[in-house]
Amino acid sequence: MREGHVERTRTPVVSGWFTEEAPDGGGFRLLGTRCSACTAVFFPPEGAYCRNPRCPGGGELAKVPLSARGRVWSVTDGRYRPPAPYVSDPAAPWEPYTLVAVELEAEGMVVLGQAEPGLTPADLAVGTEVEVVPGVLHEDASTLWTTWRFRPAGGAR
What we know:
The chain is mainly β. 0% of the residues lie in helices and 41% in strands.
């Protein structure tokens, strides 16, 4: 460790909703739940019951990595300070962020998240192929609070 350098712990903002290294070797991925009885997939993960009203029941719920890519379904900008768990310094100037709804490639479900910093709604037209990547929502002296972000596939802007 360098003199005066403090190692910060990477801590997910919401535990169990994503992984830095998917079990299939797929890198950063959101985690969902698949029901063995009806094969429905959910995000965020579910631990108690299948949320599919047409499920015949009796299945087991397994946590599964979701598609790494999808297409922009909708996009907008956030021009207000969001409530917790988003942390912001009320004394600092507010900077808008871009919210993107993404239809995941294999699952066909729509997942909401922030775009990478610097991306605006003009950078993410409906239908743009995007990928999920790790992000930092907030940091303090000891912790990097991690989350997911979306960016154009391949890192292109």
